[in-house]
Design a protein that fits this description.
- With 356 residues, the chain is α/β, with parallel strands linked by helices.
- The chain has 2 domains: 2-147 and 339-355, Rossmann fold (3-Layer(aba) Sandwich), CATH 3.40.50; 153-335, Dihydrodipicolinate Reductase, domain 2 (2-Layer Sandwich).
- Helix content is 41%, strand content 22%.
- It has a 7-stranded mixed sheet. A 6-stranded mixed sheet has the order 9-11-10-8-12-13.
- Helix 8 packs across helix 9 (192-201).
- The two termini are 12 Å apart.
Amino acid sequence: MKRIHIIIFGIGNVGSTLIGQIYKAKSKFSKAKNLDLNVPIVANSKLVLFSENTTGNTWKSDFSKFAVPYKMDDIISYVKSKNYDHVIAIDATASHDMAQHYTALIKNGFHIVSANKIANTLPLGFYNDLRENLKLHNRQFLYETNVGAGLPIIETIKDIHNSGDTIRKIRGVFSGSLSYVFNTFSLENKSFSSVISNAGRLGLTEPDAREDLSGNDVARKLLILARELDLNVEFQNVNIESLVPKQLNGKTTLKQFNARLKELDAPFEALKLKLPKGNVLRYVGELDVENKTLEVKLVSEANTSTLGQLKGSDSIFEIFTDSYGDEPLTIQGAGAGKEVTARGLLSDIVKVSNKL
């Protein structure tokens, strides 16, 4: 039996869901894959719970009672003291600080599985240094959930690229959150602010919806895909059409933004009224590989087109290659939500484990 020790950073929606999925699948993985998935450590940004097994039904109450303040060195020292053979750090945060710890974790024997996009979108110096350390210390770093949540986007892009085929363009609705917003707003008689608010209640947007509406999340996904295709591009190379008015950016607090959310209604209603008959609004990401251009923009699409037919919170990716010709390879499915994202992390955990 191969025992895998899983250290989980981030116990919000995705992290806590992942712990539950590991607990439910523990017996199945033991029988079918000869894997014993153990979670000895869970941590948020300030506190950590050290335990021989934190995947049981009491882990949340145990965390509230026994978690202690920590620094990353405390976790590294604890793992070393236990002489664990196989250790995987799971980053279920959206933290810049957490990404800065990756190199130290790799140097100390941790493999990494991440839903956090930050490490893959920091300046190329950090990005390349991280990969050099992965090679030097023979560690794995998987991040399929960075783009498309549970959809196999990054793996597919890598496979096509490594096969020798030429990817010419990638285009699609990359954000499940904004897919829901514009699918709903385009077809239903609802104000834009009410759709945004409901998306928040459903857990589709970030707590601060400006994180989604700014376009930065889609831009990061575009940048990640571009770098998978060996393009040396930075975040500032992405041309982003933000959906947040200037007066609601800057120093406006989240409370103030939410109170003024209705200021978005008039401009978006005007855009909706100008749509040609049978068209809908879509917020798309587009990577032109040949010209090295990366764009995030709001477009009008016929409701009969591939992008125009989207429903719910689905994401869609069109991959144009030499082999596929004018008809792209299309991948579509749930692009947001804690369940699919956690399931994608668990899939990456198993992939790493199988190679150990």
